Amino acid sequence: MANARPLRFLPSGFVLPLCAVALLLLGIAAGVLLPQVPVTGLILRWAGIALLAAHAAGRRSVTPWIIAAMIAGAEIGFDAPSFAIHLRVFSDIFLRLIKTIVAPLILVTLITGIAGHGDLKGVGRMGLRSFIYFEVVTTLALAIGLVAINLSHAGAGLTLPASPHEAVATPPALRWDDFLLHIFPENIAKSIAEGQILQVAVFAVLFGIALATLPDSKRGPVLRLTESLSEVMFRFTNVVMYYAPIGVGAAMAFTVGHMGLGVMVNLGKLLLTFYAALVAFALLVLLPAALFFRVPIRRFLRAVAEPATIAFATSTSEAALPRAMECMEALGVPRRIVSFVIPAGYSFNLDGSTLYLAVASIFVAQAAGIHLSIGKQLAMMATLVLTSKGVAGVPRAVLVVLLATAATFGLPTEPIFVILGIDAIMDMARTMINVVGNCLASVIVARWEGAFDAEPVSEVVREGTVA
């Protein structure tokens, strides 16, 4: 018996997080059951947060720090809402730093990927496969949203606000020709300055094609420049990500402090319908697609955890884009595929946003007491398949598309203003699904191309994903 080893029921890395979760749950329970002694729950919750921080301190990844910061931010927002509201400046700093990365990163990585690839037919094939996948997945997202809202009838019996027109001004409807024109840049510097991702991507594709047609003597210097700049931008991303826990924690503190924790916990039937539809979409569409294309599920989930967490906390896809590109390249997706699929997906593969539009548009009809036949609902979904493609390039785009759809089908706009009351919470989940969906798309296209895990990963990228 001298050589007997003690039984270990859990890996050592799970002990601190589980203890932290236990303390957090006890703290929440104490706050509910012992409201006359609030300090008890406060101490327990902060002890749990301290354990999460201790766990993060022993890990090489920044993801545990981001998760701990999210929970700490929610606690600060609950304990001191007036103070938490003033923390928004720290999340805005993080978003500004990220915005300085996004457009230059897409520009140089796309140019490098197309011009360095050399095979323009291969680029065209990759683009066609990407858009086929985008259309199939977004259509299924709309279908799931449509089924979910028809099952729950979340809008039935809604009491409309007394003065809805004072809530927000109705923006103009989004026209297909306006979106088509918006795709093409008139000034690349202006597009970069305004963060117009799709315009930058179009310019980079055309520039990369032009560069690929030049002889090596002319192409080489420019290609080496863009390759070096892409490495610099990934290193820049690594530096900025050290600030991510502060920015994410501040964003969560502001959200809870501004809206209240009760809103986040008890959001009503519509919110439950939407979240259930997102879970169904993940299980019925994303998971089967990943299995069909033999995506390594565990590796993918580890790789996507950090950008998904950032997207959820900030409700901003842009904030997660640089890290998502870096994590997918570290996972084994070649840079030429990452730099094409993920930016393109930001306009053509916003799964969470399209599902939200399906749920919200039928909710509006239900709230107004308008019965829509199956044929009219399908016509509405067909319209959303087209109009949702402009979501990424237009300010307040989801609201624009929703109001435009309501106007097209003769629906009142008043119920939309009710949705705006909980839209921030819905936005967190749909943004996370947008990011996860685009990351998965890049892996699937790489598998489809036979290029997954086939090219060496840059040392800068490898270091950044474990830092």
UniProtKB/TrEMBL annotation:
Single GO cellular component term: plasma membrane
TM region positions: 65-87, 93-118, 130-151, 236-260, 272-293, 355-374, 394-422
Gene Ontology terms: biological process: dicarboxylic acid transport
Intracellular or extracellular location(s): Cell membrane
Membrane topology designation: Multi-pass membrane protein
Keywords: Cell membrane, Membrane, Symport, Transmembrane, Transmembrane helix, Transport
GO MF, one annotated term: symporter activity
Highest taxon of source: Bacteria
InterPro entries tied to this protein: Na-dicarboxylate_symporter, Na-dicarboxylate_symporter_CS, Na:dicarbo_symporter_sf
Cited Pfam families: SDF
Designated name of the protein: Proton glutamate symport protein
Lineage: Bacteria, Pseudomonadati, Acidobacteriota, Terriglobia, Terriglobales
